[in-house]
Design goal:
Layout (H helix, E strand, L loop, with lengths): L6 H10 L5 H13 L6 H14 L3 E5 L5 H9 L5 E6 L2 H14 L5 E5 L2 H4 L7 E6 L6 H8 L3 E10 L18 H15 L4 E6 L5 E6 L1
Parallel strand pairs: 1-2, 1-4, 2-3, 4-5
Antiparallel strand pairs: 5-7, 6-7
Helix pairs in contact: 3-4
The structure holds S-adenosyl-L-homocysteine and magnesium ion.
Length: about 210
Amino acid sequence: MSNIVDDRVEDYIRKTLNEKEGLLKELEDYAHEYKVPIIHKEISDLLKVLLKMNRPKRILEVGCAIGYSSIFFTTVLDGEVEVITCERNESMIEKARANIERAGFTDKITILEGDAEERLAEVQGEFDMIFIDAAKGQYKLFFDLVIDKLKSGGIVVSDNILYKGMVASDDFVIRRKKTIVKRMRNYLDFLCNNDELSTSLLPVGDGVAISYKE
Ligand code: SAH
Ligand code: MG
């Protein structure tokens, strides 16, 4: 239950979308078993369409976990992309490295080890797409660190913006998440009122914001 859309709708969509195969399927099963919060199936299929339309040459990701989304992006783009991703959790980094190697993408995906707050500033060059999928209370901070590296005509995708519905309604908010929820609401207000961006908020997966940079 995601608290985002009606369960029947969600179940139907998940059943209807194609299952992944091979390594991606294996990583999904692993993520499910060990509760690693990888992108939801509906999000991966939405991003697949965006990736095929935009054909980004360089993607910057905040929050790598076991490498699932980076491997997915690179697979969709037939390896014709450079992905730079950031992760601070050592055991995740170890697993991501092994998975990226198994996928045959060691020359396509680079992991920056450490806190995004420290590592993102040093990233060089411009990107066509930025994917923010890390600590939910820090999205504005991540955004500020990366927005100048995004080309005009590029997109920022922010995942988990509705956070189990809590961001949309106080009825779902659990007390210890109050601060994160407040920060996420501020971030979404900021995105939607930014003259440089055109933003769409979608109740897909755990909620996703897609922002186009003018
Ligand atoms: N994008 C991945 C899932 C990422 S889960 C996928 O869909 O496959 C979020 C990850 O962000 C976690 O592994 C967490 O350790 C990492 N993270 C959270 N805050 C971070 C920060 N400030 N710096 C670096 N990594 C961070
Ligand atoms: Mg996510």
